[in-house]
Every structure is written in structure tokens, then in C-alpha cells.
Write a structure and sequence with these properties.
The chain is an alpha/beta fold and about 375 residues long.
Length: about 375
Amino acid sequence: MRGKNYISRYLEDLIPVAFELETASEFTVFGTGPAQFKVKLKKQIPKRELMRSTSLALGEAYMRGDLEVNRDLYEVLEMLLGRMDRFRTSPAALHGLKGGSLEKEKQKKEVCSHYDIGNDFYRLWLDETMSYSCGYFKKTGSTLFEAQVAKTDHILKKLQLEMGMTLLDIGCGWGFLLMRAARRYGVKGVGITLSEEQYRQFSREIKDQHMEDRIEVKRMDYRELADSKMKFDRVVSVGMMEHVGRGNYDGFLRNVADVLEPGGLFLLHFISALKEHGGDPFMRKYIFPGGVIPSLREVVDLLPEYDFYTLDVESLRRHYTRTLLCWRENFTGHREEIEARHGEEFARMWELYLASCAASFQNGVVDLHQILLSKGVNNELPMVRAV
């Protein structure tokens, strides 16, 4: 087509279906057949920004309201993210953004920047369990609450808990898993978190439920575990390894091994990637500063160094797509309240985050794995997978 400008050529290369593009100076239809949606650009995106990073340029334009689509955002992204191999990222331009830090204090600040937005904010769109991780939809009609309870029970069954055992939760969030473990299995638990908001809420909940003799929560970095002199029969970590950082995986596993009793079980639940990747620039800048998604193979490769035997590996990828769509539905249901508290740009940024993550899981850009491990050989476990 004669006269195409750079943004037209750029989007035509990215979008795999027929679409319309409307700018201040043109209205063009790309592709063959009926247009699937329309992209409206209220303000041109500088070419240098597109060359620097596709996700940052388009994401920031959407945040500002300079880019709109006339179809459900998830549906558009589900089509677009299947072509992420065509996204551009300039390592030189993004130096210092994608790499993150492996330093303890900086990582604490990065983690808290996300989780300490406020308990009231998360309460608006998470379910009653305040679980900020992948649910487990056992039935077609399961609600988000039912899926989060089922996910927790799925994990606890894999850990094969018994009365009187001790359980450590690394990155315990608001504490639902530990409280359910204590009530259902009679275990004693310790949760560690870096988030002040989560620590305060979980501490208050322990006191209100009169569970001080069974559960304790600490503001503590995983790197302090080895020197803590604590020992546990079971360890669980749900959605925390993504904050550890490439280069610190050895240290993370070493600290877990140091506090886990011989023959003890460790369940690691984490977002994973097919291959090693530095991370998405938009996510690193606005949502999870310093976050890196490990590949499954780089984690599995390290396990023998700490005498971890792999017992079970399970993917819950499609469960996370559905979880994120539930979160997004809840989020949009409280959109006016969120905008009033945090502003329109913040609300657009978070909806984009939730929709793009759902599309990423749907397309297999990322996955979710649970790995069940034993420290050393354990011949006392059932030989048949029960869950």
C-alpha cells in the first residue's frame, strides 16, 4: 500500500488479523476480510520509542489514553501476544531497567513497591482469601474463591502434612495457606514476607483468630533463613521465586535446604518461562521492578546441587489465565473507585497488566509450575500420585 508511515508498517507487522487504524491524519484498513478491531491513536508514538521497546511504547501510550481499541482488551492482546517474537527491545536503551538488582535492600524496596500499594486496593479485586497467585479450577463453574481454596488444598495435599509437623511459607502473603494448614492438619507454621502491609494484616489475623500458639509471621528475607537455626518438616513457596532474581537462585535453594529436615518436602510454585529471558520492559518498569521469570530448566538444573529429588512437576498455566480474567473482572467492577483513589493512568496501567498477563498465559508466553521435592531420598511417601 502506497504512503504507509512507520506506525502503520509497525502495527501491520505485529497484528496477525485484519484491523483498522485511525489517526489524526488517516483511516486505513489492514489485512484481508472484515476488520477484527480498530486501533485509534490520538497521538503519534515517536519512532524512537517503538524502536526502543514495543511493550513500553504501546503500553505507555495505552496508559496515557493515547491508544485505544474498540474491542475487549484481553481479546486484542490474546491475538497480539502470539507474535511476541516480533516485539522489539533495545538492550542498550533499556540498560538498568531490565537487569534488576540482586542486592538485599534494593530487592526489598522493589518487592514492597508492588505489595505495599495497600491492603484496601488488593481487597477490592482479590477473593476473600486474599490469595494473589494462580487458582485451581477443579470444576467448570468454580468461583474465584472456590478456585483459591482448591489451590491451597491442592498444595497442602501434595505436602502430605501430618499433625504436629512444622511448615515454613516463604513469601506467605496475607497468610491464608498457613492458617488453613494449621486448622486442617494441626501443623505449626511460620510465614515470612518483606511486605509491611501483608505483615501487619497477617499479624492482626493471627491475633484475632487466637492462633498465636500455632502460627508466627516474620518480616524476613529468605537469605536470613540459613542463619536462623530454624528447622521445618515442610517448606512451601508460592509466587515468590519470581522476585529472587537470576543469579540468586542458588542462594534461595541453599537457604531452603538449610532449614528443611532430611526427607522433608518442599513445594515450589512459580511462574516459569520456556526459555531464559530478561523480562518484559513494561512489567519491569511499572509492575514488578526487578522481577525475573525463571525458566523451568534452569531451576531443575540446580536442584541436585542441594540434594533435592524431584517427585512431581505440574503445569497450571490455563488455570492462571482464568484466574487473571477473574481478577480483571473484579478490577473493572471497582474501576471508578480505583480511579478515584489512584488516578486514571494507574487504573489503565493495572488493567493492561492483568489483561496482558492473562493473554501471555493463554499463548504460552509464560507458564505456571508446581514442583514437589524431597530433601534427600524419602522412601516413606506413597508410590501413587494422589492429587
